[in-house]
Amino acid sequence: MPIPQSVVNSNQSATQFRVSQNVSRPTSLALGGVKIKQDLDGRYCLNDLHKAAGKEKRHAPGYWLAIQQTAELVAELETTGIPVVTIEGRNGGTFVMKELVYAYAMWVSAKFHLQVIRTFDAVVIGHIQLVEGKQARERARLEAPALTDAIKHGRLSAGKDVKHYHFSNEFDLINRIALGMPSKVYRAAHCISPTDSIRDHLTPCEIRCIEHLQRVNASLIDVGMDFESRKQKLSQIYIQRHSRALLSEIKRLEF
Protein backbone atom coordinates (compact mmCIF):
# COMPACT_ATOMS: atom_id res chain seq x y z
CA MET A 1 0.00 0.00 0.00
CA PRO A 2 1.51 3.38 -0.95
CA ILE A 3 2.19 5.99 1.73
CA PRO A 4 -0.77 8.39 1.87
CA GLN A 5 -0.04 11.91 0.68
CA SER A 6 -1.58 13.16 3.90
CA VAL A 7 1.40 11.74 5.76
CA VAL A 8 3.87 13.65 3.63
CA ASN A 9 1.80 16.80 4.00
CA SER A 10 1.59 16.54 7.80
CA ASN A 11 4.04 18.04 10.29
CA GLN A 12 6.88 15.96 8.79
CA SER A 13 9.09 16.92 5.90
CA ALA A 14 8.66 15.03 2.65
CA THR A 15 12.32 14.00 2.73
CA GLN A 16 11.53 11.54 5.49
CA PHE A 17 9.67 9.49 2.92
CA ARG A 18 12.04 10.07 0.06
CA VAL A 19 12.23 7.55 -2.73
CA SER A 20 15.61 5.86 -2.74
CA GLN A 21 17.34 3.87 -5.46
CA ASN A 22 19.34 1.91 -2.86
CA VAL A 23 18.76 -1.80 -2.95
CA SER A 24 17.86 -3.77 0.12
CA ARG A 25 20.38 -6.15 1.62
CA PRO A 26 19.87 -9.65 3.02
CA THR A 27 19.38 -10.07 6.74
CA SER A 28 19.36 -12.97 9.17
CA LEU A 29 16.37 -11.48 10.99
CA ALA A 30 13.15 -13.44 10.53
CA LEU A 31 9.70 -13.21 12.10
CA GLY A 32 7.08 -15.90 11.73
CA GLY A 33 9.08 -17.49 8.94
CA VAL A 34 9.32 -14.21 7.02
CA LYS A 35 12.77 -12.75 6.37
CA ILE A 36 12.83 -9.06 7.15
CA LYS A 37 14.90 -7.18 4.56
CA GLN A 38 17.06 -4.21 5.48
CA ASP A 39 18.26 -1.32 3.36
CA LEU A 40 21.90 -0.27 3.18
CA ASP A 41 21.46 1.99 6.21
CA GLY A 42 20.04 -0.79 8.39
CA ARG A 43 16.36 0.19 8.26
CA TYR A 44 13.79 -2.63 8.26
CA CYS A 45 11.16 -3.37 5.64
CA LEU A 46 7.67 -2.59 6.91
CA ASN A 47 6.13 -4.61 4.11
CA ASP A 48 7.91 -7.74 5.37
CA LEU A 49 6.81 -6.96 8.92
CA HIS A 50 3.24 -6.67 7.65
CA LYS A 51 3.54 -10.15 6.15
CA ALA A 52 4.98 -11.53 9.38
CA ALA A 53 2.09 -9.99 11.33
CA GLY A 54 -0.48 -11.87 9.24
CA LYS A 55 -0.84 -9.50 6.26
CA GLU A 56 -4.28 -8.23 7.33
CA LYS A 57 -5.39 -5.22 5.33
CA ARG A 58 -6.16 -3.22 8.47
CA HIS A 59 -2.51 -3.58 9.49
CA ALA A 60 -1.12 -2.24 6.21
CA PRO A 61 1.89 0.04 6.80
CA GLY A 62 0.21 2.93 4.99
CA TYR A 63 -2.58 3.08 7.56
CA TRP A 64 -0.13 3.10 10.45
CA LEU A 65 2.06 5.78 8.84
CA ALA A 66 -0.99 7.98 8.39
CA ILE A 67 -1.89 8.28 12.07
CA GLN A 68 -0.81 11.33 14.06
CA GLN A 69 1.08 9.37 16.72
CA THR A 70 3.30 7.83 14.05
CA ALA A 71 3.89 11.23 12.48
CA GLU A 72 5.02 12.63 15.84
CA LEU A 73 7.37 9.72 16.44
CA VAL A 74 8.88 10.11 12.98
CA ALA A 75 9.39 13.83 13.64
CA GLU A 76 11.28 13.03 16.84
CA LEU A 77 13.52 10.57 14.99
CA GLU A 78 14.48 13.14 12.37
CA THR A 79 17.28 14.34 14.64
CA THR A 80 19.06 10.98 14.33
CA GLY A 81 18.65 10.39 10.61
CA ILE A 82 16.04 9.61 7.98
CA PRO A 83 13.39 7.50 9.76
CA VAL A 84 11.48 6.32 6.69
CA VAL A 85 12.46 5.74 3.07
CA THR A 86 10.81 4.03 0.15
CA ILE A 87 12.94 1.87 -2.12
CA GLU A 88 11.68 1.19 -5.59
CA GLY A 89 12.14 -2.01 -7.50
CA ARG A 90 11.57 -5.72 -7.07
CA ASN A 91 13.08 -5.93 -3.58
CA GLY A 92 11.90 -2.51 -2.52
CA GLY A 93 9.33 -1.32 -0.05
CA THR A 94 9.02 1.06 2.89
CA PHE A 95 11.96 0.85 5.27
CA VAL A 96 11.97 2.28 8.78
CA MET A 97 14.33 2.67 11.72
CA LYS A 98 14.24 0.07 14.51
CA GLU A 99 12.27 2.35 16.85
CA LEU A 100 9.47 2.47 14.29
CA VAL A 101 9.53 -1.32 14.00
CA TYR A 102 8.68 -1.56 17.70
CA ALA A 103 5.99 1.12 17.36
CA TYR A 104 4.41 -0.60 14.35
CA ALA A 105 4.43 -3.98 16.12
CA MET A 106 2.76 -2.47 19.18
CA TRP A 107 0.09 -0.93 16.94
CA VAL A 108 -0.61 -4.32 15.32
CA SER A 109 -1.09 -6.32 18.53
CA ALA A 110 0.42 -7.09 21.90
CA LYS A 111 1.28 -10.59 20.69
CA PHE A 112 3.17 -9.34 17.64
CA HIS A 113 4.85 -6.63 19.69
CA LEU A 114 6.18 -9.24 22.11
CA GLN A 115 7.35 -11.41 19.22
CA VAL A 116 9.29 -8.49 17.75
CA ILE A 117 10.87 -7.60 21.10
CA ARG A 118 11.99 -11.18 21.72
CA THR A 119 13.34 -11.59 18.20
CA PHE A 120 15.35 -8.37 18.32
CA ASP A 121 16.61 -9.23 21.81
CA ALA A 122 17.81 -12.60 20.53
CA VAL A 123 19.67 -10.92 17.66
CA VAL A 124 21.31 -8.41 20.01
CA ILE A 125 22.29 -11.11 22.51
CA GLY A 126 23.70 -13.25 19.72
CA HIS A 127 25.77 -10.32 18.48
CA ILE A 128 27.07 -9.56 21.97
CA GLN A 129 28.02 -13.20 22.47
CA LEU A 130 29.83 -13.22 19.14
CA VAL A 131 31.83 -10.13 20.06
CA GLU A 132 32.55 -11.43 23.55
CA GLY A 133 33.63 -14.76 22.09
CA LYS A 134 36.12 -13.07 19.77
CA GLN A 135 37.47 -10.97 22.61
CA ALA A 136 37.79 -14.00 24.88
CA ARG A 137 39.62 -15.98 22.16
CA GLU A 138 42.07 -13.13 21.77
CA ARG A 139 42.61 -12.94 25.54
CA ALA A 140 43.17 -16.71 25.63
CA ARG A 141 45.80 -16.35 22.91
CA LEU A 142 47.45 -13.53 24.86
CA GLU A 143 47.48 -15.68 28.00
CA ALA A 144 49.18 -18.58 26.19
CA PRO A 145 52.65 -16.93 25.99
CA ALA A 146 52.47 -16.18 29.73
CA LEU A 147 51.88 -19.89 30.39
CA THR A 148 54.69 -20.99 28.07
CA ASP A 149 57.05 -18.49 29.70
CA ALA A 150 56.12 -19.79 33.15
CA ILE A 151 56.81 -23.38 32.05
CA LYS A 152 60.16 -22.46 30.52
CA HIS A 153 61.40 -20.33 33.42
CA GLY A 154 60.10 -22.80 36.00
CA ARG A 155 62.07 -25.68 34.54
CA LEU A 156 65.19 -23.65 33.87
CA SER A 157 65.23 -22.25 37.41
CA ALA A 158 65.02 -25.82 38.72
CA GLY A 159 67.94 -26.84 36.50
CA LYS A 160 65.77 -29.03 34.27
CA ASP A 161 65.68 -29.34 30.48
CA VAL A 162 62.79 -27.86 28.51
CA LYS A 163 61.19 -30.25 26.01
CA HIS A 164 58.38 -29.53 23.56
CA TYR A 165 56.04 -31.95 25.31
CA HIS A 166 56.28 -29.96 28.54
CA PHE A 167 54.26 -27.22 26.84
CA SER A 168 51.76 -29.56 25.20
CA ASN A 169 51.24 -31.36 28.51
CA GLU A 170 50.27 -28.12 30.25
CA PHE A 171 47.86 -27.03 27.53
CA ASP A 172 46.35 -30.50 27.45
CA LEU A 173 45.91 -30.29 31.21
CA ILE A 174 43.78 -27.17 30.67
CA ASN A 175 41.83 -28.85 27.86
CA ARG A 176 41.19 -31.98 29.91
CA ILE A 177 39.73 -29.92 32.74
CA ALA A 178 37.80 -27.37 30.67
CA LEU A 179 36.67 -29.59 27.77
CA GLY A 180 36.81 -33.04 29.37
CA MET A 181 39.37 -34.35 26.87
CA PRO A 182 42.81 -33.59 25.37
CA SER A 183 43.05 -31.47 22.25
CA LYS A 184 43.70 -34.43 19.91
CA VAL A 185 40.53 -36.21 21.05
CA TYR A 186 38.51 -32.98 20.91
CA ARG A 187 39.63 -32.36 17.31
CA ALA A 188 38.57 -35.84 16.28
CA ALA A 189 35.24 -35.62 18.09
CA HIS A 190 34.37 -32.25 16.48
CA CYS A 191 35.97 -32.83 13.04
CA ILE A 192 38.46 -29.99 13.47
CA SER A 193 41.42 -30.13 11.11
CA PRO A 194 44.99 -30.03 12.51
CA THR A 195 45.51 -26.61 10.91
CA ASP A 196 42.48 -25.01 12.61
CA SER A 197 42.65 -23.49 16.08
CA ILE A 198 40.47 -25.31 18.60
CA ARG A 199 39.79 -21.97 20.29
CA ASP A 200 37.86 -20.80 17.21
CA HIS A 201 35.38 -23.67 17.66
CA LEU A 202 34.63 -23.20 21.35
CA THR A 203 31.69 -21.52 23.00
CA PRO A 204 32.11 -18.23 24.92
CA CYS A 205 31.89 -20.05 28.28
CA GLU A 206 34.52 -22.60 27.25
CA ILE A 207 36.84 -19.83 26.10
CA ARG A 208 36.44 -17.87 29.34
CA CYS A 209 37.13 -21.03 31.31
CA ILE A 210 40.31 -21.82 29.36
CA GLU A 211 41.50 -18.22 29.55
CA HIS A 212 41.08 -18.21 33.33
CA LEU A 213 42.68 -21.61 33.88
CA GLN A 214 45.68 -20.71 31.71
CA ARG A 215 46.24 -17.57 33.74
CA VAL A 216 45.93 -19.41 37.07
CA ASN A 217 48.15 -22.27 35.90
CA ALA A 218 50.92 -19.84 34.93
CA SER A 219 50.78 -18.34 38.44
CA LEU A 220 50.87 -21.78 40.10
CA ILE A 221 53.89 -22.77 38.04
CA ASP A 222 55.62 -19.53 39.01
CA VAL A 223 55.23 -20.36 42.73
CA GLY A 224 56.69 -23.83 42.18
CA MET A 225 53.59 -26.01 42.58
CA ASP A 226 54.04 -29.51 41.15
CA PHE A 227 51.93 -30.92 38.31
CA GLU A 228 49.58 -33.11 40.38
CA SER A 229 48.92 -30.34 42.90
CA ARG A 230 48.19 -27.89 40.08
CA LYS A 231 45.87 -30.39 38.44
CA GLN A 232 43.91 -30.72 41.68
CA LYS A 233 43.79 -26.97 42.23
CA LEU A 234 42.71 -26.21 38.66
CA SER A 235 40.00 -28.88 38.84
CA GLN A 236 38.72 -27.31 42.04
CA ILE A 237 38.63 -23.86 40.42
CA TYR A 238 36.81 -25.31 37.40
CA ILE A 239 34.09 -26.79 39.61
CA GLN A 240 33.71 -23.64 41.69
CA ARG A 241 33.86 -21.04 38.91
CA HIS A 242 32.97 -22.60 35.56
CA SER A 243 31.13 -25.93 35.68
CA ARG A 244 27.69 -24.45 36.36
CA ALA A 245 27.96 -21.87 33.56
CA LEU A 246 29.16 -24.50 31.09
CA LEU A 247 26.33 -26.85 32.04
CA SER A 248 23.78 -24.07 31.55
CA GLU A 249 25.30 -23.25 28.18
CA ILE A 250 25.08 -26.88 27.04
CA LYS A 251 21.41 -27.06 28.08
CA ARG A 252 20.66 -23.84 26.19
CA LEU A 253 22.35 -25.10 23.04
CA GLU A 254 20.41 -28.37 23.17
CA PHE A 255 17.04 -26.62 23.00
UniProtKB/TrEMBL annotation:
SMART domains: KilA-N. It holds the Pfam family KilA-N. Transmembrane segments: none annotated. Residues 22-123 form the KilA-N domain. It comes from the Bacteria. This is KilA-N domain-containing protein. It comes from Pseudomonas carnis. The lineage of its organism: Bacteria, Pseudomonadati, Pseudomonadota, Gammaproteobacteria, Pseudomonadales.
